[in-house]
């Protein structure tokens, strides 16, 4: 492809399987850092910090410092794959799962990012409800009639989301550039305010009630799943990166920095409120409720709304582009708008459930269960089986090298099922629930099984070919 033709591609959004040419790679190192700060410095990071606060201060800090860097190393490995091959994360799964087999992770991915959008939108809508109460006297979330105000908040947030992804990765880049400064402002402000109200010593010495204490391994699974949830989105951005460092180092810096900070704010804010009120209830560890109870006013609530927009721009980008891996009959932009509308509808569901926290933890369990084995297979296939050699053109070919059997790599799908079942078996076992959790052990085990099975399968093929040659001679 000549230079002039490549430049013609630059203004548009690429579909999942299309390899992005060098001339269309417009994201700089600091654009990527800002993107992943904006993605992780959000309501969800704060909320998950409040959830793992059930392990007390020391336990929650250890969980945060252990679980997240591992997840973001996995993200960097897959981000590099996206940079080298130029396609989306879900298109990369075509090489290991088969062209049609990749539809499974793509469908799972679309649903999980729509789910994340709904989670962040719901928390932001709580902020909108508190603002409506302060400015207009309307009932806030949790009060009689508050559901109507929440529906207004959900509609308002959905309009912001449509604007944020209106032109694909270019509008997302602008949202993240603007939002990162407001996000950092909120982080500094909340940290100062919490520590002015409750001493750090009191927070460090606080212990949760026995009936609400979270086992360390369970907290590891929650935090690991939270951070791993971003991994399927990484190649959607690193394929637009200008350099290798943009695709690997920049996301790790942005993601780790923002996650550590905002989870820390969530931890100390939740514990601080528990000390102040005498009641620890992780159901109310969301930032909107805490900001309201601490009396920080509308400005803080408005910044929470903005952080939701920066995070959901990434979520919607990943969900929409994943959909184009399943069908190319929908353009990337239309796909982005479609998943935004679906996410808005899904956000209404928690209004009619008994516990948002329970739904949130079940959602994280789902992510760890289905995506951990997928990442293991993807990394082992690229780095150890294929030695970093994927053919971008063949990813879109029917009956090509990644077609396998009717478009399915039955070996990869079988190993994935084994990984999911293993997670279900180990997840609640005391040995794992009280120590390291099941997510990362299952990833390692799945990778080993896939590597060994692939080598045995390759050896069997060689043996059959040698036998056929001998018979022919």
Automatic annotation (TrEMBL):
<dbReference type="Pfam" id="PF02133">
    <property type="entry name" value="Transp_cyt_pur"/>
</dbReference>
<keyword id="KW-0813">Transport</keyword>
<feature type="transmembrane region" description="Helical">
    <location>
        <begin position="113"/>
        <end position="136"/>
    </location>
</feature>
<feature type="transmembrane region" description="Helical">
    <location>
        <begin position="333"/>
        <end position="353"/>
    </location>
</feature>
<feature type="transmembrane region" description="Helical">
    <location>
        <begin position="46"/>
        <end position="66"/>
    </location>
</feature>
<feature type="transmembrane region" description="Helical">
    <location>
        <begin position="359"/>
        <end position="385"/>
    </location>
</feature>
<keyword id="KW-0812">Transmembrane</keyword>
<feature type="transmembrane region" description="Helical">
    <location>
        <begin position="300"/>
        <end position="321"/>
    </location>
</feature>
<keyword id="KW-1133">Transmembrane helix</keyword>
<protein>
    <recommendedName>
        <fullName>Cytosine permease</fullName>
    </recommendedName>
</protein>
<feature type="transmembrane region" description="Helical">
    <location>
        <begin position="406"/>
        <end position="426"/>
    </location>
</feature>
<keyword id="KW-0472">Membrane</keyword>
<dbReference type="InterPro" id="IPR026030">
    <property type="entry name" value="Pur-cyt_permease_Fcy2/21/22"/>
</dbReference>
<dbReference type="GO" id="GO:0015209">
    <property type="term" value="F:cytosine transmembrane transporter activity"/>
</dbReference>
<dbReference type="InterPro" id="IPR030191">
    <property type="entry name" value="CodB"/>
</dbReference>
<feature type="transmembrane region" description="Helical">
    <location>
        <begin position="148"/>
        <end position="166"/>
    </location>
</feature>
<feature type="transmembrane region" description="Helical">
    <location>
        <begin position="432"/>
        <end position="453"/>
    </location>
</feature>
<comment type="similarity">
    <text>Belongs to the purine-cytosine permease (2.A.39) family.</text>
</comment>
<feature type="transmembrane region" description="Helical">
    <location>
        <begin position="216"/>
        <end position="237"/>
    </location>
</feature>
<feature type="transmembrane region" description="Helical">
    <location>
        <begin position="178"/>
        <end position="196"/>
    </location>
</feature>
<feature type="transmembrane region" description="Helical">
    <location>
        <begin position="72"/>
        <end position="92"/>
    </location>
</feature>
<dbReference type="GO" id="GO:0005886">
    <property type="term" value="C:plasma membrane"/>
</dbReference>
<dbReference type="InterPro" id="IPR001248">
    <property type="entry name" value="Pur-cyt_permease"/>
</dbReference>
<feature type="transmembrane region" description="Helical">
    <location>
        <begin position="258"/>
        <end position="280"/>
    </location>
</feature>
């Amino acid at each position: 492809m000549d230079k002039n033709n490549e430049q013609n591609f630059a203004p548009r959004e690429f579909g999942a399987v299309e390899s992005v040419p060098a001339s269309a790679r417009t994201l700089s190192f600091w654009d990527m850092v800002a993107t992943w700060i904006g993605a992780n410095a959000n309501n969800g990071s704060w909320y998950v910090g409040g959830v793992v606060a059930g392990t007390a201060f020391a336990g929650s800090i250890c969980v945060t410092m252990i679980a997240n860097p591992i997840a973001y190393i996995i993200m960097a490995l897959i981000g590099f794959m996206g940079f080298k091959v130029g396609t989306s994360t879900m298109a990369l799964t075509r090489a290991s799962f088969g062209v049609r087999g990749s539809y499974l992770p793509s469908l799972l991915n679309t649903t999980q990012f729509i789910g994340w959008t709904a989670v962040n939108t719901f928390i932001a809508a709580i902020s909108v409800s508190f603002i409506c109460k302060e400015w207009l006297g309307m009932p806030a979330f949790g009060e009689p009639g508050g559901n109507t105000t929440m529906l207004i908040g959900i509609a308002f947030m959905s309009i912001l989301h449509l604007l944020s992804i209106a032109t694909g990765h270019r509008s997302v880049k602008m949202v993240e550039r603007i939002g990162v400064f407001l996000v950092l402002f909120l982080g500094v402000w909340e940290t100062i305010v919490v520590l002015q109200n409750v001493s750090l010593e009191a927070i460090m010495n606080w212990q949760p009630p026995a009936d609400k204490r979270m086992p360390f391994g369970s907290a590891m699974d929650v935090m690991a799943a939270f951070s791993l949830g971003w991994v399927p989105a990484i190649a959607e951005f690193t394929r637009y990166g200008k350099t290798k460092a943009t695709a690997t180092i920049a996301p790790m810096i942005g993601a780790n920095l923002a996650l550590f900070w905002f989870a820390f704010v969530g931890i100390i804010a939740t514990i601080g409120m528990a000390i102040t009120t005498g009641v620890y209830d992780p159901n109310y560890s969301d930032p909107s409720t805490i900001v309201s109870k601490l009396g920080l006013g509308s400005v803080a609530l408005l910044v929470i709304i903005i952080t939701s927009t920066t995070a959901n721009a990434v979520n919607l980008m990943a969900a929409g582009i994943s959909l184009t891996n399943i069908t190319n009959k929908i353009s990337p932009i239309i796909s982005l708008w479609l998943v935004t509308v679906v996410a808005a509808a899904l956000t209404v569901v928690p209004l009619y459930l008994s516990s948002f926290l329970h739904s949130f933890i079940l959602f994280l369990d789902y992510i760890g269960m289905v995506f951990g084995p997928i990442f293991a297979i993807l990394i082992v296939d690229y780095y150890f089986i294929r030695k970093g050699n994927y053919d971008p053109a063949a990813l879109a070919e029917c009956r090509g090298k990644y077609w396998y059997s009717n478009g399915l790599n039955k070996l990869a799908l079988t190993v994935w099922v084994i990984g999911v079942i293993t997670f279900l078996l180990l997840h609640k076992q005391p040995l794992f629930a009280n120590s390291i959790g099941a997510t990362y052990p299952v990833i390692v085990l799945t990778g080993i099984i896939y590597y060994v099975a692939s080598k045995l399968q390759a050896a069997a093929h060689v043996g059959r070919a040698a036998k056929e040659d001998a018979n022919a001679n």
